[in-house]
Amino acid sequence: MSAEATTSRAYEQLRAEEGGAEAEPRATPADAFRAAVRMFIDGPRLEMGPLAAELGISKATLYRWTGSREQLLGEVLTYLGEQSVTIGLERGEGREGPERIEAFFRGFVGAIVNFEPLRRFVRSETPLAFRLLTTRGGLVQSTVARRIAELLESERERGTLALRASAADLGYAMTRIIEGFIYNDAMAEIDTDIDTAVEIVCLLVDRPDHS
Q: Which sequence spans correspond to the domains of the chain?
C-alpha cells in the first residue's frame, strides 16, 4: 500500500478557491483591533511587533491598518471607556434625575478604578497615559464627555434634572473632575475615593424647581 500523498497549504488553498470554496481566512483590521484590546488587557504592554506576529502580518501592514502605536492605544482606551460608560448606564436603569446620575457615576467610576490593566498602563507609561486620557479634544476624553453630556441632556429633557450650565460644559467638567480622582490616584498607587468623587460631580446637578 503506497503512502498517502500530501499537498502544501498553498496548493490546497488554490484548489479551494478554484472550486468556489471559501479561501482560508486571513487577519483583518477588525481582528487587529480585537487582538490589540486583548493584548492591552493581558499585558504587560501593547506592542506592535508582537501584535503583528500574532496576526501573521507584517508590521507595515499593521501600521497601515491601525496607525501609530499611540493612535491604536488611544482607540483601545476609548473602546474600553465606552464599556465603562455602558456599565454606568446599566447601573442607573430604573432611576431618574439626580439618583440616576449618581448611580451612573458609581458604576462608571467603579468600573474604571477596578480595571487593573488601566492602572498598570498609567503606572508604567505615565506621560503617554496622561496625554491619551486627559488631553482636551483627545479621542478618549471627548468621547466620555460627550456620553455624559448625552445622559445629562436626556434627563433634562425628561424634566427630571436641573443643570447649572449646558450639558456639554457639564459633561466636560465632570469628566475632568473624575480624571483628577482616578488617574492621579492610580499613578500614586492609592485607592480612589469613589464616594467623594461621585459626591462632588453630583453637586453640579439638582432636581428641577416645579414651584
A: 26-67, 70-206
Question: pLDDT per residue over 64-116, tens digit each?
Answer: 999 999 999 999 999 999 999 999 999 999 999 999 999 999 999 999 999 99
Q: Which residue has the cell 508582537?
A: 50
Cα separation, 200 vs 122, whole angstroms:
23
Domain spanning 70-206: CATH superfamily: Tetracycline Repressor, domain 2 (1.10.357.10)
Is residue 182 within 8 A of residue 112, CB to CB? The reply is: yes
Alpha-carbon dihedral sign for residues 100, 102, 107, 111:
positive
Please give the helix or strand (H or E) that residue 56 lies within, else none.
Answer: none
94 φ/ψ sector (left φ>0, alpha ψ -120 to 50, else beta): left
Say whether pTM exceeds 0.70.
yes
